[in-house]
Amino acid sequence: MTQDNRESWLNRVAAGMAPLFEALESPLPSRVRVAIGFTSAGRKAKAIGECWGRLREGAAFPAVWSVTE
After folding, report:
1. d(CA 45, CA 33)
2. Count of helix runs (H) and strand runs (E) in the chain
3. How many domains does the chain contain in total?
4. Is residue 44 part of a domain?
5. CA atoms within 13 Å, Cβ hemisphere of 35
6. pLDDT one-digit tens code per residue, 5-60
7. What pLDDT does 19 receive?
8. Residue 57 maps to a domain
9. CA 40, 45, 32: angle at the middle one, nearest 5?
10. For residues 48 and 31, what is the distance between their CA atoms, to the nearest angstrom?
11. Counting beta carbons within 10 angstroms of the beta carbon of residue 11, is it exposed (0 to 12), middle (13 to 18) or buried (19 or more)?
12. Highest taxon of the source (predicted)?
């Protein structure tokens, strides 16, 4: 068994969830960044995550962030 890092685990989860999005007629883009960390509002924000579209300045592809707590 290979040891996963957080990024590889999140990418596998996103790939596994892709059929669920397709069933909702909202397929995931071919490239999407998934990450765990703090939201753009910082650690004390009450948000549990954020989604950033491709149009965000400097973004190569959409991103989904989940809060660590």
Report:
1. 21
2. 1, 3
3. 1
4. yes
5. 12
6. 888 888 888 889 899 989 999 888 888 888 777 777 777 777 777 776 666 556 66
7. 94
8. yes
9. 40
10. 22
11. middle
12. Bacteria
**Does 1 fall in a domain?**
no
Question: Considering the domain boundaries, does residue 37 fall inside one?
Answer: yes
33-36 sheet: strands from edge to edge: 33-36, 63-66, 49-52
Confidence at 3, pLDDT banded by 50, 70, 90: low
Q: What are phi and psi of 27, to 5 degrees?
A: -60, 150
Amino acid identity at 15: A
User: Residue 56 belongs to what domain range?
Assistant: 6-66
Q: Rounded to 5 degrees, what are φ and ψ at 50?
A: -145, 150
The HSE-up count of residue 54 (CA atoms within 13 Å, CB side) is 7
pLDDT value of residue 61: 67
